[in-house]
Design brief:
Elements lengths: L13 E4 H5 L2 H20 L12 H16 L3 E8 L2 E10 L8 E9 L8 H15 L4 E7 L3 H9 L3 E12 L2 E11 L5
Helix pairs in contact: 2-3
Length: 191
């Protein structure tokens, strides 16, 4: 399913899953490159996405290939958000590999192009990923965020995530130190 055509700029993102993305060769072919651009721009501007320096294109392509493969096996969900046929964000969760943790998954990454932040793209991606987790039988969805990532933490709280731990000054970026904040969404018994 291709993102919808519009006569002007779309106001709501089209949020595609991994299967929809793979079914459109034009979208799938440019996905890793567009995702790399988003990550490189965000990390270059200091975003808390797990890298100190922008990742290399091959690193992003390898990561997304791993997530897409896990999604095909039912062990992940990958979502891509498009506005007017342009990738503006993506996110994914991965099921924990240990047998004792298999009912659970970690929301690994949500990345939204700085040009569209504040327009609901992150909320749409996270909402879709939570729905995918629920459908996959995930019992607890976890995530961690850098303590100064207040916008993301506010979004996660608004979607029902609760903080269950914090490591003070755990994340080192040069001489700066940030808390690492752990959050969870318990999906057991929710319909």
């Amino acid at each position: 399913m291709s993102p919808p055509m519009t006569s002007g700029e779309a106001t709501e993102p089209a949020v595609l899953d991994a299967a929809e993305l793979a079914s459109d060769p034009a979208l799938e072919g440019g996905f890793a490159e567009s995702a790399h651009r988003i990550l490189a721009d965000l990390v270059g501007a200091g975003a808390a996405l797990g890298w100190v320096e922008p990742p290399a294109p091959h690193e992003v392509a390898q990561l997304l290939g791993h997530v897409a493969s896990a999604a095909r096996a039912g062990d992940a969900s990958l979502r891509a958000a498009y506005l007017d046929h342009r990738l503006v964000g993506f996110g994914y969760w991965l099921r924990y590999a240990r047998p004792t943790h298999r009912p659970h998954a970690d929301l690994e990454k949500i990345a939204v192009d700085a040009a569209v932040q504040g327009r609901g793209v992150g909320r749409a991606l996270t909402t879709a990923l939570v729905a995918d987790a629920r459908e996959a039988g995930i019992e607890v969805l976890t995530l961690d965020a850098r303590g100064d990532n207040t916008h993301a933490l506010r979004l996660y709280r608004s979607l029902g995530f609760t903080e269950y731990g914090r490591l003070p000054d755990f994340v080192a970026v040069g001489d700066r130190r940030y808390d690492k904040v752990f959050c969870m969404l318990d999906l057991r018994g929710q319909d």
